[in-house]
Amino acid sequence: MEQKTGAPARIPNLSADDARRAILDRLTAVPGRERVAVRSALGRVLAEAVMAPCNVPAHDNSAMDGFAVRFADLASGAETALTVVGTAFAGKPFSGIVGAGQAVRIMTGAPIPEGADTIVVQEIARIAGGQVFVPAGQRAGQNLRRAGEDLALGGVALPAGKRCGPAELGLLASLGVAEVTVHRRLRVAFFSTGDELASIGKPLAPGEVYDSNRYTLFGALSRLGCELLDMGVVRDDPAALETAFREASASADVILTSGGVSVGEADFIRELVNRLGQVAFWKIDIKPGRPMAFGRVGDAWLFGLPGNPVAVLVTFYQFVQDALLTLSGVAPIPDTPLFAVVCDSAIRKQPGRREYLRGRLVRRDGRQTVELAGAQGSGILRSMSEANCFIVLPEAGGDVAPGDTVQIQLFDGLI
Ligand code: AMP
Ligand code: MG
Fold first, then answer.
1. What is the structure's pLDDT at 9?
2. Protein residue whose Cα sits closest to atom 11 of ligand 1
3. What is the pTM of this model?
4. Does residue 218's CB lie within 6 angstroms of at least one atom of ligand 1?
């Protein structure tokens, strides 16, 4: 950017952990909630705990197909013959009472008939002439699912701050709950900056590159369930950028930009956004993705990501995603799990910064290893597409030799 003024500003160095903490410590859920039907709660965050309005299961019921019996009837050391007096189905309970010396044939999920207290699985029972023969060695109360053992009436079925996935939708339905209160969707405005950027669908002029970051971010943000305001490409021009920042901060909770925060470019943007708010510019001790900006612009939070396509994804996943989830109401935010795996590749690394390499976790001949997924330049998206995990090399470490154990972060766990 041409409009640099005065001496270059000092940009502080930060570790990845400090940057993450500095961001997350400042954020809480945005206000606003709504009632939605259970299906529409997929990907949404509960704003209130859901208390169980009934027991799940609602009745004591059978965990197996077999016979409902009275344990007291069973001889301790010998086979017992009982008279079969009926059948209990899941949707059609046995309405009588199981008396002494009697049994009821029962299907999985059927309520336990009155009088019975134990289920004998059909595989071990012998049936002949209207009688069931139960071998010795049964346990009192076996093969029963107790009322409320999954969810007890009045207890917390789902806590506030929980993001609903398939299991949560099913759990809500199992309680008969038809609607829940969720946080409103986070509104995210995003744009790319750079004079060299061309929009897809047009031929490239000399020196231009297609704006890919906006598509990467569209994908990442859509999966988080954000409401998106795609503001296109904004030129490296103070007036255009100021207009974009003002418009974005007036209509969104979060502004996400890519490009323009590297040392050479930061001074100008820094001056601009700090006129509109308060933004810190950092050099984070990671590779790729060193430069990043974070702060307030007007009423919105700004995340200024670097321009390099892979750096965008690394900084998004390591710093922005959990921030957006926090603003969306998710709590607590768990640390992303890391797995220790043997590395098959040699990796050169300088101590002093954390590196996120694109890796591929593979299983070959019953052996699970990780290898580098192609060229690792911070502009090379292809290797990001070929990878299924980050190989995360800690700050203090140096080169990795084949056979060394490394830590990986699975893409699939990154939402
Ligand atoms: P910057 O951070 O603006 O200095 O950009 C660093 C590198 O990323 C440059 O090579 C840019 O051309 C490239 N770049 C920046 N923004 C984008 C984008 N939206 N899509 C693809 N490449 C980009
Ligand atoms: Mg640029």
1. 63
2. 307
3. 0.92
4. no
